[in-house]
Amino acid sequence: MSDTPRYDLVLTQGSVWMPGGLVQTDIGVRDGKVVAFGTLAGQGAQELALNGLTVLPGVVDTQVHFREPGLEHKEDLETGTRGAVLGGVTGIFEMPNTKPSTTDAAAIADKVARARGRAWCDHAFFIGATGDNAVDLAEWENLPGCSGVKIFMGSSTGSLLVAEDEPLRNILRHGRRRIAVHCEDEPRLIERWNLVKDGAPVHMHPVWRDEETALRATMRLVRLAEETQRRVHVLHVTSAEEMEFLAAHKEFATVETTPQHLTLAGPDAYDRLGTRAQMNPPIRDARHRDALWKAVEAGVVDVIGSDHAPHTLEEKAKPYPASPSGMTGVQTLVPVMLTHVAAGRLSLGRFVDLTSAGPARIYNMMNKGRIALGYDADFTIVDLNARWTITDSWIASRVGWTPFDGFEATGRPVHTIIRGNIVMCDTALQGTPVGQPVRFQECP
Q1: β-bridge mates for residue 376, sequence order
Q2: At 325, is the secondary structure helix, strand, or coil?
C-alpha cells in the first residue's frame, strides 16, 4: 500500500454546511477541488482539525471598490483583498470607478494584471457602461476576469454617469449577462441639491438623496429591463418603497442590500458616526431598515454585498456635503451578518444563500457557491459562538476605520481557505496571495 497521501488537504472535526444543511464530515481536497467527504483523518498531506467549527461555502462579496488604479492612498488590490480574507471572504467583484475608469478591454486587462500575485482572494472586475461604449459591451463583458457590466444612474462623474433613458436602453440592448446598477435618479439629485449645497448637517444626506430618488431610478431601470428583456441586478437597495416594487418585478431584476443598511439607522447613525455614516444611497431611518429585513425574510433580497468604498478619515472629516460618501465593509460583512444570525434575525441557511449561493446563482459563477463534489475548495470557517468586539485596529484597509468600531459581534471568521489554500489560519494571515480571476459559465 502506498504511503502517498490521498488528498492535498483534509479538514477534520468540522460541521459542514452542505446543500442539504449541516453535516458532520471531513472534507478531502485535491488540486483545489472538493473530492471527498467522510472519515478522512490521516489521509491528507496537510490536515486542519477544526474542533467543532462550522465550515461554510466561501463568501463572495459582489460589490467592493478597491480604488486601484489612481486612488491607492485609500486602498489597493492587495490591502483590499487582505481585508477580505481576514473577514472570511474568498472572492470579490470590484467596481469600475477608479482613475482612470474601467471602461474598455485594456482597463480590464490592466486590473487583472495588477491583481496577479497580489490579490489574496479570487476576484473579478466590472466594466463601466458609458454613453459611448454600449456597442462594445457585448464583447467586453466576456473578457477574462470580467464580472459583467456596471451602470451608475446617479452618484458618479464623467462618462460613468448614465442618467437618461435612451443611453440606458442602448446599453441594455448590447450583451446578455446580468448588469449591476446603482439606482439613484440624477435629475432629482440635481433638483434637490439646493437643500445641502451651502452646507448642512450630515443628517440631511437621506433628505437630499431621499427614497423617491432611489425609487424613480429603480422603476425606470426595471421598465427598461422588461422592455429589452435584459437581466439587471439592483445594488444596495435602501428603501421600503423599492423593496415593495421589486417584489412585484422579479422576472428580470435581482436585489442586493448591505450589512450597514440592515444594521444602522438614522438619525442615530449620524448622531454617533457623523460623516462616517455617509454613503450612497444613504443610511435611512428605522422604517426602511425594518422593510429591508422583511424583504430578506420574504426572499426578495438575493445577495448581501458590502459596498466597501473606503475614504481616509481626513477626507471624511470635511464638512458635509464636501465629505465623500462611502465606508469600509468587506472585512466586517461576515461577522456583522453572523451576529444577526445569532440574534435570530436570519437563519444560517439564509446567510449562506445571501453570501455564497446567491452570488453564484445570479452571476453564473463557475464551481463556486456551495460545498459539493467538484466545486472549488473555498471555505469560510467560523466560530458561530465567538463573542468579540470589532475595532478600527482590526481593519486591514489602508484607511484603518470601520463604522462598526465598538460593535459587539457574535460569530467570527477563524480560517479562510481558497481553492484548498489556507490564507487565514486562526484569524491570522498566512502564506502569500493566491487569488485568481473568477470564471463564469456564460463566458467562452
Answers
A1: 33
A2: coil
How far apart CA 339 and CA 354 sit, in angstroms, is 15
Task: For 166-182, write each residue's pLDDT tens digit.
Answer: 999 999 999 999 999 99
**H or E element in which residue 187 lies:** helix 186-192
Residue 276, exposed/middle/buried by CB under 10 A (0-12, 13-18, 19+)?
A: buried
Q: How does DSSP classify residue 440?
A: B
CA distance linking residue 371 with residue 16, whole number of Å = 8
Q: How far is Cα 400 from Cα 407, in angstroms, rounded to an integer?
A: 15
Give the contacts of 333 (CB within 8 A, at least 6 positions apart).
59, 61, 87, 89, 259, 304, 306, 355
The mean per-residue pLDDT over the stretch 93-118 comes to 98
Angle between helices 165-172 and 211-228 (to 10 degrees): 50
How far apart CA 114 and CA 68 sit, in angstroms, is: 9
Whole-number Å distance between alpha carbons of 358 and 370: 10
Sequence-separated (6 or more) residues with CB below 8 Å from residue 171: 129, 134, 137, 149, 151, 162, 179
